[in-house]
Structure formats: C-alpha cells, structure tokens
Amino acid sequence: MKQVSVHIRTLAPVVLSAMSNATVMTESHSYFSGSIVRGIVAGRYIKARGLGEHAEENEEFVALFFNHLRFVAAYPTAEDGARSFVLPLSLQKKKDGSEILDLMNQESAAGYKSFKGFAVEGTDGIRPITVRKTINLHMSRSDIQNKDGKERLAGRSMAGGIYNYEAIDAGQDFKGAIYGPEEELRTLLDGLDGSTWQCHAGRSRFTQYGRCCIELGPVEDIQAEAFELQDDAILVRLDTPYLPENPYTSPLRNILESLFAEMEGMALRMQDKDFDSMHFSVVDMPQKFFAKEEPIENFVGVWGMKRPREHGLAAGTIFQLKKKDGPWTENEKKLIQNVFYDGIGLRPEEGFGQLRVWPNRAHCLAEQRAADCIMPPKQIQKEVRNRAESILIQHLLSQVQIWAAEDVQASKESFPDTATHFFSRMDALLGGSKKNASSYLQNAIEMERGNGSTPFAKALQRISIRGRKLGDYMKDGDLKDMPYNQRDWQVLSDAMQLERAMQAIGIAGGIEHFQCAEALFYTYWHWFFRYGRKASAGAGKGASEE
Hints:
The chain has 546 residues and is α+β, with helices and mostly antiparallel strands. The protein is 33% helix and 21% strand.
C-alpha cells in the first residue's frame, strides 16, 4: 500500500458545516473530512476526463473512488507542514499547562483536566495546533415568503431574516492523504490533468466562501509505525471516526469486539496464505480504553440532500489491542499496519475507520517557541489592558451569540402563541445599554409583569430555557446562573487559551471574571429575544447555497 499527500490551502473563508440545531447559526468543522477530500478530487477527475453527469457509469472512476482508494481527512498542519492528529481521549493536561498525563499508562492526579484538539508530536513533545475561525453575519436575500424577487432588487431583507456563518479563515493549511495500491494511485494522478488546481469546497461555495488551492504529492511509501509493546499489546487510536457495521451494538466493549472481528477478517483477506489468522481481544481493565460516540452526517451535492445520520466512535478514541496467539512477528506488524491504513468499518473509501499506533510511554508538552509565548510585560498601561480585555470579550460575545441561537431552537416548543410580540417587548425592555443591563431589565420586567395574569407574565413562566423558566432567570438576576454559564466554559477557555491571555495582561479572578460580565448578559438576551422572535414568526435563515 502506498500514499499520495493532499495539501489544501484556504484562499477564502471556508464553511464546512457541522451539525447544529440553530437555524440562525451555521458552525464549521475545523478540518476537511475524507468525504470532502474525495469530492474535491473526484470533481477534478470528472472534469479532466470529461465524464459529465454520469461518471458512475465509468468503471475506472467507480473502481478508484468507491473501491480501491482511501481518501483520508485533511487536518491542520504545523509550521513545518506536518499533518496534525486528534489528541487521544486519554490525555489530560495540568491546569497551569506545564504537564500532561496519559491515563492509558499513568495514574490520574488532582489538578488535571481533559486535553483535546489537534496536535503534532516531535522529539520535543506534543505541540497543540489551532484553527482560526471568524463568525460573519448575513441577511437573507431569498424571498422565502413570496418569491417575487423584491428582496434582491432592494438589496436588503424585507422580512428581517438573518443568519450567521462560522468560517475557517483564509491562509491556513491542511493535509490529508490518499492511500491505496501503487497502480491505482498512478492511474488517479494520470487522470487529473495536473497535481495543482483551485476549487471551491463547503457551504455557499459560489459566493465569497470556499475557495481553496489543492496540491497532490507524488506516490510515496507509507512510513512504518513504531510498535511499543507491553505484554504483547499495543495502544491504538482512531485517527478518523469509526462507523461500525452494527451502530447499535452496546456497551462499548461490544463495539470494540466487533471492531476486532473486522480487523481479524481483513487481516485474513490481506495476508499471505502461509500465515495463520491473527486474533485480538479487549483488555478487561476499564482504563485501557477511552472512547466517545460521534454522530456523522454530510451533505451530498450531487443528490442535493443530506445522507442519513450514522453513529460511530469519534477520532481520538484509544484502546489497547492485545494479540491472543503469541508475540508479534515482523510480518504481522506490517500486515496490521496495512489493515490500519485500509480502514475498518463502513465507508472506508471516505477515510472512516483509520487507525494508528499510539506510543506506549509518558508524553510531555513541547516548550513554547518565542513566537508562541505570551510574555507578560513588567508593567502594562491601563489603556492597553482595557483594550486587550475588550478583545477577549468580543470573542466571548461571539460564542454567547451562538449559544443564544442554539437555546432558542432547543426551547421553542415552549413558546406561546404570543411569543413574537413578547420577544419584541422583552428586547425593548432590555434597552440599548450594556451597563447594568441585568438590573435594568429586572426592574423593567417587574413593572411590566403586573398581577401575574397578563399574557406577558404567563409567557415568562411558560418559556423554558435549559430546564429553567425564563421568569426565574429574570427574578433571580444572578449572572452566575444565566443559561450561557451552564455551558462548558473550560472547553471554550482551552480553545481560546483564555487563562494564558488573562495572565499575560494581568486579569485576576479566572474565568468567573468574564462569566459575570454585564456585556455577556446583554448580548445573550438581546440575541435570544431577536432569534426567538424570528423563530416564533417562522422566519428562516435564507438560501445560503448560492
């Protein structure tokens, strides 16, 4: 088995839609899935070969893209161009960021939290990799209600329909791969009319989004992975999500058993007939596997519709693979690597079910380079500190706006018939000032509530947000108990490196410093009331595929 590298550089913002219930907010993945990589290369192949709309009738096309080759996800790259990987779920990081633990071979300790995201590992240790994103606001121009074209002629949304796109910023690099037999890989490259081209990927790819540059490498050998054995067992991580043949198998142990059965069957099909089949088992100790379920769905442009949602194990799932019938031979190590790169489970041609060996040793964090370090100055001016804090708050406000949209979708079943007017009134009571917004709104509601029998008062007690009545939020007024503070702030903090930034500019108090900010209160409820009004009025987010 050989490989061809796939290098993707974003030339414009790219929206790679992630699953979300918010009709006014489209979130984006942080990587190009194997399905997208295959679609990009297939589109180029169809155009170069002139296959038109019936490429599925070409036997060579079907053999390459649906049988022999594996198109694997393009993850963000490090500065040296190395492809990152999804960190195993067994990793934990010390809260001060100084050390990491791998619970597969180390005992848990106090003062550590989960360590997630993308990273690369070199001789100096593990280095996290981040993907820059931006949220953009758009106005509907689709004339959903009457389809008379007046919105487009006017250049504005007459119905007030709005929606937001989260997009990967331009100027970032991602790397994936195509695995398969050498002959098929060369056939693919010969049929592409060059190894470099530009394309559009993701949502709204015919407007300002989605433009990318694609560059394919030559046919190369796959670098052999080092096997670090412990009691004839190796650690294996999922490089991409795994879709089992039976997605409803439970508990997790049974899913792993089915995975091992598929590996055994594939090894038997791939190996030389002089070898006996390999047999694997689950290690009974519970700390020997860490896993998370992940739903998978994607939009197929040719169909003009989504594929049915499937459930599998997420990338980063890690477990111990034990060989039951004796020690590993060198031939068996080569064979199992071919199994890993060929993929296990459903849809392996789209890169699902890719497995990799994980080093069975203690890991460390790479020392921060000078360019990555946030060195706090000995003295910082008040104006500089305030400006830096304002920048951090703006990032948090963008996230709070997303949470408001999601909460509207989750709670809209509790909206009364008068919700459109109610939310308009609530937004008016909130006013336009973020200063002391919580007490101002609380006092305004008490004056508006009346004797408790008005439609306004009833709506306060009917609308439920994250298991609590809207009226209770407003009556209590404690900013720590607001809906957005029920979210996982630690994950958000880790993604933003919030604690490091706060330390650098001299902000004390931890995450709670921002959780109780009046600006977050105002932003969340302002957008909740706006999105709630549009959801109750039936306003969609508009056509976005143009």
